[in-house]
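Hello,

Following up on my earlier ticket. Below are the two sequence lines again, exactly as submitted.
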Amino acid sequence: MTATYQELRRSDLPSLRREIRAGHYAKHTAGLGPGFLQTNLAIMPEAFALDFMRFCQRNPKPCPLVGVSDTGNPMMVTLGADIDIRTDVPAYNIYENGKLTGSREDITDIWTDDLVAFALGCSFTFERALEEAGIPQWHIDHDTTVPMFRSNIETVPAGPFSGKTVVSLRFIAPERLDEVIAISRRFPLAHGAPLHWGDPEKIGITDLGAPEWGDPCEIEEDKIPVFWACGVTPQVAIERAGIPLCITHKPGHMLITDIAEDAEVPVRNPRAA
Amino acid sequence: MTATYQELRRSDLPSLRREIRAGHYAKHTAGLGPGFLQTNLAIMPEAFALDFMRFCQRNPKPCPLVGVSDTGNPMMVTLGADIDIRTDVPAYNIYENGKLTGSREDITDIWTDDLVAFALGCSFTFERALEEAGIPQWHIDHDTTVPMFRSNIETVPAGPFSGKTVVSLRFIAPERLDEVIAISRRFPLAHGAPLHWGDPEKIGITDLGAPEWGDPCEIEEDKIPVFWACGVTPQVAIERAGIPLCITHKPGHMLITDIAEDAEVPVRNPRAA
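Thanks for your patience. The regenerated structure is below:
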């Protein structure tokens, strides 16, 4: 019983999670669960968790931390009443010693007592806000993945985690730039204000037509290239660190939480529920 | 050569830090280094650091994390070019097994290689913003410490850290309440918007005249009692946890950082300096 994207777009949050948990849906989550925070995912052994958490704290724009599991506990209790991180993401990537070694739709059989799961805010949140403000985004209008580039902006290292900041690109009309900056700054848990706009070479990007991740977009000459910190940054840092095991979401296949996208604080108190 | 508060009010940041580091000033820091972020402090063995960091992530309003040291490194490299956490806070409290066992002005001789220092945002930041907006605060006008109470609002626990949320009280004129909420919400790293306003009993406070910490303030009958999450919350959680060693700032004696109070992100990149 596979569920289609169109069916799930009409689903409420519990049904949506049930379908994903049951393995009936393993595709991207853009546009699903509107109004609720979606997140990137990184799961790793506790031995690396403090350094990774420091890395997130030091690089909050690419790595906005919105939830952390207890060690060994797969329930993300602060992000929802019933979120099991082993089953509730549509698809996972497995990294061993920094190399992608496989993808799967369920990680129950490889979950262990020493793992810690980190949920990081993603760009869907501010993209939705830009859409609502009537600001067109080429990659959404053309149903492609946003183009992403490795910039020359160094992250602040922590333990084994370091590397350049990855940025995503959207072309914005000059007369709407201030508004776009103000809107995205309102979402510090979704990468916040852009890191840079204008000349791409200033942040080490030489060819806007050749993104390292995602799809190329049209180069809109009458608009300004605007670059946001991107959630691929921690993934690159994790690969560079070469830690023995890390499990991430498969790009675009996010965790959908119970947290409202405009919540002041992305935390549900499990004691208050 | 003891420096006076009045002398230091006119000092620039490097001079200020030099005086504190040299042990020439060991008093409160309110009003010093205007425009720069001041922080609360908690230093503990690495064995408890991941749980404490999870506690901060889960309780961002009372525990807004703005900086974390590397294990064993006393330099707070993300908060300033030359901040030595062993000497650059005017006065420290020492807790052993959850009990306050002493105060000192320098912790160089008890610093060890397994300690991690956490800097947490404090209310000075939004208080300054309220002042600038012309909103009177009784405790500032009367040079007393803000009254603080133990509420019945549970924190979200992490490992050994748990307990009720401590709140600070300010009376606000009804016609300025919306503005006060909006202003303080702009400072998520300084406790953000109030947790509660109006009837104190709703959050378990029965006598506004008898704060558990700080000084009583005048009960201004024509105004509304407004309660903000308070940085004493992590201190209470640390005491309850009874961890073998924790070093905090002495209340009011904060760390003054190089970070601008209105920075989008409270992080200096040591590699970019």
